[in-house]
Amino acid sequence: AGPAAHLRVVEVGSQDVNGGLRRYAPAGWRYVGLDLVSGPGVDVVLQDPYRYPFSDGVFNLTVSSSAFEHIDFFWIAFLEMLRVTHPNGFLYLNIPSDLGDHSDEVKPDSWRLLRDAGGSLERWGRGRGFPKLSVVQAFVSEHTSYQRHSDLVVIFSMGGAAAEAVRLPESLPVKYESLFDYAVRRNRCFQKIPPQHRDQVFHFFDPDGISHTFDLVR
User: Fold this and answer.
1) Rounded mean pLDDT for each run of 10 residues along the chain, 218 residues in total
2) Cβ neighbours of residue 9 under 8 Å, at least 6 residues apart?
3) What pTM, to 2 d.p., does this model score?
4) What is the pLDDT of residues 159-178, one digit of tens each?
């Protein structure tokens, strides 16, 4: 195993409510999930949302998805994320951009961010002790038939080399079938199935009750 096998990752807002990020981490990565409440995917329950119990720069990657909208002062939490990220590390944020109010699920539900928020956070971080912080990529996802809200996605580099290597595709698959086909093909469990057993057709219903079909070997 090379150096990548020992990467350290921290997820802020890690409780697995409808699917967390931990499942996408390669085997061998040391993954720590932080949240304000205990639950699936949570390794450390924070007493203070703006202070993490770790030394400076101990994580190669800091990630957070669908959490910033629930943090009263997300810009303060952002600085703490930067503090625990290695000087050659990266930070990944996924934040709702036009999602409707869901404070009935998690309170508070206070913020929605647009594409330029990436640059604003970069300038905020640089002015607060992280002068090499830079936005590698920032975009707002488009609506699709199966996801009717947009998310702001931002990748930051703390200042290391090869930042461009972490860029993400900015377009989601147009069809629900294509999304599932892509997801299943990339699933490590599916990849272990012998090819002769992959020839299956699945039928399912999307959130609108529309029937779909997709083929695992198409």
Assistant:
1) 71 84 86 94 95 97 92 96 96 87 78 91 97 93 71 89 63 53 50 51 50 47
2) 25, 29, 30, 31, 32, 59, 60, 61, 62, 63
3) 0.74
4) 865 556 666 666 655 554 45
